[in-house]
Specification:
With 337 residues, the protein is mainly α. The protein contains ten helices and two strands. Strands 1-2 form a two-stranded antiparallel ribbon. It is flat and about 55 Å long.
């Protein structure tokens, strides 16, 4: 076992000035560690969406009536407050767990050898999306759960899931120039699938904003739209996404595409079928809270798998995996993902 070197005053100053570079100079994670750190950030980005939905579905959206404190005089719920306060405050605290997961992903990506700037940028993009959504979440509370701000809150969380998915994928491939595995018509078809999925998610937030689950037991503003009509539009868009996915699978089989795009498309189709079953059951059973929560989880999974299909259309060989970091300047490091 190697002896742990003493930390000098210069080391301490370096750690204060640039802690990421300090850690990177003394730790080289295994590729699997970097992949797991990115996956943990992705999992937590989905968890925070589901728990946020639980806040709304339990009527706890104004359990903490102000922000950033829970009450005007207390950061946390007091003994006089109820379970709704605990649920809302618990969801706020999960933001710190999400930040910890993203922080681990950033540190692991920064410490990987050779240094891959593209990974750290994706990690920092997640961090700033979380910060922006935390502020927007405060605005949601301050404006009394205005449905338009709630919709924006969910869409920004979906953007976080997208970036986390891309980072997870990028940890499992090299930094070489992307090489397409399918022809341009298939790529265009998948981009159309992505666009339809974005529209599906956006209309889903309108269904939520016009629906009965306002997020609090008090009178909360709803979007002035007919919920039945918006729900049917949402269902039509869902069928478009399902049809496109089914057609894509047949096209990929016809052109003898590589295994990765085929597998991701098949998985997406199964996720969509599960989501569709949940959606129709909740519609015909007057939106029970448990099924609505499952549908929110399914929305995140559908979005992840749509992006996985898109990312599976190309491969990035190892090649030049990165650029030397400050701690590696002048040295030669031969590592791969």
């Amino acid at each position: 076992m190697e002896r742990v070197p003493n930390v000098t005053r210069a080391d301490a100053l370096a750690a204060v000035r640039n802690p990421l570079a300090f850690i990177a100079g003394r730790w080289t994670p295994e590729p699997r560690t970097v992949q797991r750190s990115a996956l943990s950030a992705l999992v937590m980005s989905v968890v925070i969406v589901v728990t946020g939905g639980a806040v709304r579905l339990t009527g706890s959206g104004l359990g903490c009536p102000t922000w950033p404190k829970c009450t005007a005089t207390s950061l946390a719920p007091t003994g006089a407050m109820n379970v709704h306060s605990a649920i809302e405050f618990g969801n706020r605290m999960l933001t710190y767990v999400l930040c910890a997961a993203i922080g681990w992903a950033i540190v692991a990506a920064r410490s990987e050898k050779p240094y891959r700037r593209s990974l750290t940028r994706l990690g920092w993009a997640q961090f700033w999306l979380v910060m922006g959504n935390a502020v927007l979440g405060g605005v949601v509370v301050l404006v009394g759960l205005n449905p338009y701000t709630v919709a924006a809150h969910f869409l920004l969380a979906s953007a976080l899931i997208a970036v986390a998915t891309v980072m997870w994928q990028r940890t499992r491939e090299g930094d070489g120039a992307p090489r397409s595995l399918v022809g341009k018509p298939v790529q265009q078809m998948v981009w159309f699938l992505v666009a339809a999925s974005v529209l599906l998610i956006a209309v889903g937030t309108v269904v939520t904003g016009a629906g009965p689950h306002a997020g609090d037991s008090s009178e909360v503003e709803r979007m002035p739209l007919d919920w039945e009509t918006i729900s049917k539009l949402h269902a039509v868009l869902a069928w478009i996404v399902v049809t496109l996915t089914f057609a894509l699978w047949f096209v990929l089989k016809a052109v003898d595409a590589p295994a990765a795009p085929l597998h991701r498309t098949r998985e997406l189709f199964l996720v969509l079928l599960s989501q569709g079953v949940i959606g129709y059951v909740q519609y015909f059973t007057n939106l029970p809270e448990a099924l609505v929560g499952l549908h929110m989880l399914g929305s995140g999974l559908v979005w992840i798998w749509v992006l996985r299909v898109l990312l599976a259309l190309r491969e990035r060989p190892g090649g030049d995996l990165g650029i030397p970091g400050p701690a590696q300047a002048g040295s030669s490091v031969g590592a791969g993902v």
